[in-house]
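Reviewer 2 asked us to include a model.

Predict the structure of this chain.
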Amino acid sequence: MPTTADKPAPSTLEIKDLHVSVEEASGATREILRGVDLTVRAGETHAIMGPNGSGKSTLAYAIAGHPKYQVTQGSVTLDGEDVLAMSVDARARAGLFLAMQYPVEVPGVSVSNFLRTAVTAVRGEAPKLRTFVEELRTSMDALSIDALRIVSAGINAFREQPGHGVLLITHYTRILDYVRPDFVHVFVGGRIVEEGGPELAEVLEAEGYERFLKAGAPA
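Predicted model (structure tokens):
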């Protein structure tokens, strides 16, 4: 009979007063995030929405540990552990990773080799080639034409597993037809300026970001 100890502990990602800057080509430093506060608990799906240039991608890169983005103030913790002190691969192993909108193609590296390397990093050992080929073929057979539906199904399957939370960063509201968030956060000027339930996404679809841009623009 399963005991409490057998169940995965619920995870909590907590972001407090996060400020992030980036060095531009000119050498000047520009602050992009200006005090972000956000808590994502296991079992919750949070959608961050905002216009281009609002800082949504910067938040994702900062959490993942991209070296271009420098945290100048604030904290990011996962179950109380300092995420900002972790290496990038340690963050990924802890479950903090990005699913990219447009994956980068690496010249000379086949998709199969790339995926096998990723699986090795996660599992701690390289899968046997024959086993991996069969596993890859099964996964490929599950794919179909509508990429948005497939991605959404993957997100939904992930968040249904115990101990998982999702932070969905998008300006493309159609994905929310398939992935219904518990919370919606409007991102403008490097900070969250409005929060609500899934109905807020419907407001953004109908009205856009104009009133938020006026209210949330940095001084």
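The longest helix spans residues 111-123. Residues 10-105+148-216 form a domain with the Rossmann fold fold (CATH 3.40.50.300). We have added this to the supplementary material.
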